[in-house]
Amino acid sequence: MKVSYFINRRKLDHFTLCCYASLALPNVDCQAPANEFSSCDDLMKDKTLQVCIWVLGIFAFFGNIFVVAYRLVVREDNRVHSLLLTNLAISDFMMGLYLLIIAFKDVQWQGEYFKHDLSWRVSGLCQFAGALSMISSEVSVLMLTIITLDRFICIVFPMRFGRLGLKKAIAICILLWTFGTLISVVPILGIEYFHDKQLDIGFYGRSSVCLPLQLSSDRPAGWEYSVSFFIGLNFIAFMFILLAYIAMFWTVRKSSAAVGSRNAKKESALARKLMVIILTDFCCWMPVILIGILSLTGNFHDPQKLAYVWIAVFVLPVNSSINPILYTFSTAHVKKRVTQYSRSM
């Protein structure tokens, strides 16, 4: 870029232009809108988040590989429950892969990120990473909804409805993955609605971390699509989950005076165990949904978009990292296997 471009231009449209200006004219007084995620040097400018994205990515990637492998090898009595948790682990694994892609790119371009910003955001890898994150997020939420529905039927309506069978569970999983893949791939099919004409970037390229999450009062290309799934669909899903668990524990408490069957107690114990997983996801997603709603109505003030950055890179992915610990590593069966293996060494 020619030095003459910056003469008499101190206010520029994009932060990377100021990076070029500083490179060409070290003492230039340049002003441009700050990027919430990136700086001239780094894709991820916050040093704490640089560490977090590696830690969360490694835990989500390898932890969920272990979960899937374990559940494929070890046969459990409740095959439907195991199938749903295996699919949840696969979706969480995809979030780990997404995080590691961003982390690797941050390291690769350290010290000169501004030179790669635009080419990165329009690249196929960024589109792939963004689609991965959306598939992971939506399939995880929908899988948690199905897990809750299964527990709800078993506890609240054990005699009225037939419990979820293995064939139905497989069909539901296929349906959820098909739906998650479709809504994630549609934005990269070249539809004009998703293309930002001003910046000449696509749906996933709106941020340097390739996330289409809408948590501001801005109206970028495709914002309605993002809101309808990340805010609308997820809000409905978690409201159902909340109400279903209230109904389940009310039913358990109501029948506690009576002599419960062994099977009913087993279902209640499983519901309590799964509640920990679902509660952590609920606590992470509800602030996102509320902030999204407040932002759209102009009632959330975050000029530096710090909340957006931490939610996108830490709050949402943290579930994918801790879920393996909650639903597999912490179980008595796994602890027993690990203890036996340790003693044999």
Automatic annotation (TrEMBL):
Main location (coarse class): membrane
GO MF annotation, one: protein-hormone receptor activity
Keywords: Leucine-rich repeat, Membrane, Repeat, Transmembrane, Transmembrane helix
Lineage: superkingdom: Eukaryota
Keyword Membrane: yes
Claim: Transmembrane helix is one of the keywords in the record: yes
Compartments reported by the entry: Membrane
InterPro entries, per database record: GPCR_Rhodpsn, GPCR_Rhodpsn_7TM, Gphrmn_rcpt_fam
Every G-protein coupled receptors family 1 profile domain range: 63-327
Any Pfam family the entry gives: 7tm_1
Residue ranges of the TM segments: 54-73, 85-104, 169-191, 227-252, 273-295, 307-327
PANTHER family: G-PROTEIN COUPLED RECEPTORS FAMILY 1 PROFILE DOMAIN-CONTAINING PROTEIN, GLYCOPROTEIN HORMONE RECEPTOR
Protein name (database record): G-protein coupled receptors family 1 profile domain-containing protein
Organism: Nematostella vectensis (Starlet sea anemone)
